[in-house]
Amino acid sequence: MSLSASSGSNQYIYPFTAIVGQEMMKKALILNVINPMIGGVLIRGEKGTAKSTAVRSLAELLPERDSVEGCDFNCDPDDPARYCEYCLRLAAEKPLSRVKTKVQVINLPLSATEDRIAGTLDIEHAIKKGEKRFEPGILAQANRNILYVDEVNLLDDHLVDILLDAAAMGINVVEREGVSFMHPSRFVLVGTMNPEEGNLRPQLTDRFGLVVDVTGEDDIPSRIEIIRRRLAFENDPEAFITDFAQAQQELTARIEQAKDLLKEVHCADDMLNLAARIAIRLEVDGHRADITMIKTAMAHAALEGRREVTEDDLITAARLCLPHRMRRRPFDEGLNPDEIEKIIREVMQKI
Amino acid sequence: MNDHVFPFTAIVGQERVKTALILSVINPRVGGVLISGGNGTAKSTLVRGLADIVDDMKIVNLPLNITEDRLVGGLDFEGTINHGRKCHEPGLLQRAHGNILYIDEVNLLNPHIADLVLDVAASGINIVEREGVTLCHRSRFILIATMNPEEGHLRPQLLDRFGLSVTAYPEAEEAKRAEIIRRRLEFERDPVAFRQKWLKESRSTAQKILRARETLREVNTSGEILALAAATARGARCAGHRAEITIIETAKALAAFKGRGEVTTEEIEEAAGYVLPHRAREPLSGRRKQEVENGSDGPPENAREGNVVHLGYQDNLPQKEPEQDIPPFFPAGTQHGKAGQEKVEAPALGLSLRIEGGYPRKARRFTSSGRQEKSRANVPQGRYVSFRIPRGKVNDLALDATLRAAALFQKMRRRTDGLTIVIEPQDIREKVREQHTSTFVLFVVDASGSMGARRRMGAVKGTVISMLRDMYLRRNQVGVIAFRRDSAIKLLEATRSVELAERCLKDLPTGGRTPLAAGLRMAYVEMKLARTRDPDILPYLVLVSDGRANVPLFSRDSLADALEIASRIRAEGIRSLVLDTEEGAVRLGIAKTIAEVLDARYVRLDEISPRKVLVNVESLMTSTKQSRK
To answer: Do B382 and A158 touch (CB under 8 A)?
Structure first.
């Protein structure tokens, strides 16, 4: 189920390029489309800061890719190591037929039950045929797609566990209700949350590659522009979408180019060393920070049309990767991206 | 899906974790490995990488979503229907036999499932007696698990099951960190080529392991060495004899891996480093108590690497065979109201206890040994762990169990409507789900200057930490709010991790004025919020302060503001305890006034031992449960 289908009466999607401001959020989302291995985005902010709108409208910009035709798990025909059980069996007999599909945004509602997420026994099939069959769940749909959790901080603990389990390996192992099944489940995790309603478990926070904090636009002209566009969209969505069609196409093309270019992007050794030094200086948890920082920097270089990672790429990446990965002390607000940038610039100067 | 496993030998650093894993596969008698560590320290990558260097064992993954039937095995409805006779379907424990059983995030595993795994790990035999299937098979496996202590600790009973424990730390060296990024990028770009590159090294490690296994039997252990192992274990005050046996088995594996024919002191010392950290125990009295009283807020001296056992009040824990502490039968309550009904399950015995209101003493003992209090939810929520024959209306059908129940009789039933399975009412089974009845204990700690005397704040921290630990043993959620200078701050969100809570408290600076009202207001908001999220939550407030408020919130009178909020907290029906920290000859007794407004239990810090505070918190909870009836 893609979001566009689930949004019911409101069938028009507000164009991504029509969102005023919120540049970091937009950038974080785009970087994840360019390289899904970055590991998703957590968008933190108060209500009404276009968080959900941005994620929904992202669907429009998503690229196409090859999938195995008819596969419930969107298996990649060129990656036999990650075939699901069905594709493995089929591939042994004949070459798999492929089909072009768009990357989708899969919604994980807070009310979802464990069996709907992990997948379970196919009830109808069991009763009609007396056979056990696995009924794929949300984690199956999410494979090679974007998994979107609105208000992720309110997600039940045991559901979070299932997500973490799958995210850790990129495989969903189901051992429940009479079925035993395993399928690939590699997704880009996108979550939104309002920090006023409670925090996220540290382990889940760490699973998000990037974090952006969004606030409402402050200057009057921007605020007016937001209202103006929203009204125009609601008045005549079709005309509004047409107005932005060209911008949308341009952005899609830019993302496509960046995806191609990413394969050629090179990251010099001193950039790797610098990333390591930054991580040490800022006392981040674990190694995910450094690795994500470099991946993000490379995707950023590709987005900018460059083949070489620069310090600026690294700084942009650090601003997105690090704020949620530093240890916090009491009465210490943590560092915001600007403070992080300042420290990084100091680290750079010392070389 | 092996092609996407990051090669074990390509992992930078983590030598201790690697060694522990290798030892456990050389000598299964070592008894498994527990790897703890923070996020992103390659814990899971290391375990999965084992597949590369161990050829004759599979890694059987136990997912957190597992249900009981898939773990122990049961009736196979498909086979039963098709063949008209009972067919058994092997569970994960059967698949794990002779292999490695891997549990990621073991501290999050459902306690019921964990008990089942524990049972089999101890006996090596899985006995299934359910759904008309009787079955018994051997199930010996190497148990390997990972956990992040920030997400909550492991129950002591489960902890004891692991022969070795190691902690994975992130690399601190720049060059190594850079190398980690480099290898990761290279791997992701072309996993197949990367694995090819490391193949030779993987093979050579695999060979070394095979050779070590062959020579293991011939490794000599002299009498002196045995004595040394025993003395080492005794020195650490380990319970039982498992520690020294494990030290010796580990040392033998180490010697074999090094190609030595004789265990030396060196191996015993090294082995002890893997075996003892999670076993070392300390009697309750002595140091811990002293530490609290002396106001030292540093970690206990033996809280060294990997020591995740919580000291203090160990005497409360059943050391061995915890089940024996539990009465075999508890009379079920005769009537039950809606909200006051608490249900405690004793999964190891397959018992269900229904208790009205407060917990009888014995059952409390049981819950305090680390079991979560559980309640049965009306709405189907929580983890599906088991099934039962329904009483009354079914609103949460356990289809798999129903099908298995029906399968046995299909031969005799007429098939209509083209359906293969005919289900009759007596087949119906419903799901048993488990859910945390969250008990949420919120500590509101005064960190102002009046508390600032170093010794006193130390005592406060010590007391709060021991309370936190007790809360952990009961798997309650805890949160901490501190107030000083002009504002209150949420130190810790509701969490089940004592480690986080302790870290927060230890780093807590003190000084400045006393915005008591702000602290209470934040607590009030937090508790209301917690209730919105989970209407069944049982919130408790523990206020630690001398009550000398001097920062007003909305009027000019700082104490009046505090009292105003206190009365609102009371109006919400939130139970509380005030720990008065005031000392000296001249006392204002303000905390006592606040306690009266809160209708709280009142305890003075200088009059009682930390132990007594605990007893108070405990009785507070009991009385609240009764009052909720």
So the answer is: yes
Which of B39, B104, B491 lies at the smallest CB-CB distance from A165? B104
Contact B180 A291 (CB under 8 A): yes
Separation CA A91–CA A145 (nearest Å): 22
Query: Which of these is catalytic: B138, B140, B184, B242?
Result: B242
Domain end, chosen from A181, A196, A214, is at A214
Task: Give residue B417's pLDDT.
Answer: 60
Angle between helices A269-281 and A311-321 (to 10 degrees): 40
By Cβ distance, the residue of B1, B177, B491 closest to A290 is B177
User: Measured between CB atoms, does B191 come within 8 Å of chain A?
Assistant: yes
Task: Write out B578-611 in H/E/C secondary structure.
Answer: EEECCCCCCCCCHHHHHHHHHCCEEEEHHHCCHH
Considering only CB atoms, B174 lies closest to which of A184, A276, A329, namely: A276
Neighbours of B325 (CB within 10 A): 12
Q: Is B433 a catalytic residue?
A: no
For the segment A219-234, what is each residue's pLDDT rounded down to a tens digit? 899 889 999 999 999 9
Q: Which CATH number fits domain B2-169: 3.40.50.720, 3.40.50.300, 3.40.50.80, 3.40.50.1110?
A: 3.40.50.300
Long-range contacts of B114-119 (CB under 8 A, 24+ apart): B114/B155, B114/B158, B115/B347, B115/B348, B116/B68, B116/B71, B116/B72, B116/B347, B117/B62, B117/B71, B117/B93, B117/B143, B118/B157, B118/B158, B118/B161, B119/B348
pLDDT of residue A3 exceeding 60, the answer is: no
Highest mean predicted confidence (pLDDT) among B270-274, B277-281, B407-411 = B270-274
Domain count, chain A: 2
For the stretch A26-39, pLDDT in tens is 999 999 999 988 98
- CATH code: domain B439-627 is 3.40.50.410
Closest CA to A190 of A56, A1, A23, A2: A56
A62 to chain B, minimum CA–CA distance in Å?
22
Of the ranges B149-153, B448-452, B481-485, the best mean pLDDT one: B481-485
**Complex prediction ipTM:** 0.81
| B482, B545 contact by CB (below 8 A) | no
- Provide the domain limits for residue A154: 3-63+103-214
Across the range A282-310, mean pLDDT stands at: 92
β strands within chain A, DSSP E: 41-45, 64-68, 98-102, 105-107, 120-121, 134-135, 146-149, 171-176, 179-184, 188-193, 210-214
Best mutation target, B36, B58, B65, B93, to test chain A (most A CBs within 10 A): B65
Task: Spell out which residues of chain A touch residue B151, defining contact as CB-CB under 8 Å.
Answer: 201-203
Q: How far is B50 from chain A (nearest CA, A)?
A: 15
Q: Which B residues 576-605 touch A at CB under 8 Å?
A: none
Tokens of B412: 């005799």
Confidence of residue B602 (pLDDT cuts 50, 70, 90): confident
Considering only alpha carbons, which residue of chain A is nearest residue B74?
A: A178
Tokens (6 digits) for B103: 């549990």
> What amino acid occupies position A43?
I
Which member of B70, B382, B529 has the closest CB to residue A198? B529
Q: Which of chain B's residues have a Cβ under 8 Å away from the Cβ of A154? A: 533
pLDDT band per the 50, 70, 90 thresholds, residue B382: low
Identify the DSSP state of B490: E
Q: What percentage of chain B exceeds 90 in pLDDT? A: 20
**What is the per-residue pLDDT across A55-84, written as a single tens digit (0 to 9) for each?**
888 888 888 889 999 898 999 888 888 888
> Which of the pair, B295 or B424, is modelled with greater confidence?
B424
Kindly state the helix (H) or strand (E) to which residue B376 belongs, with its residue range.
none
Structural domain contains residue A161: yes
A291 pLDDT higher than 60: yes
Q: Nearest residue of A to residue B423 by CA position?
A: A127
Cα B587 to its chain centre, rounded Å, is: 42
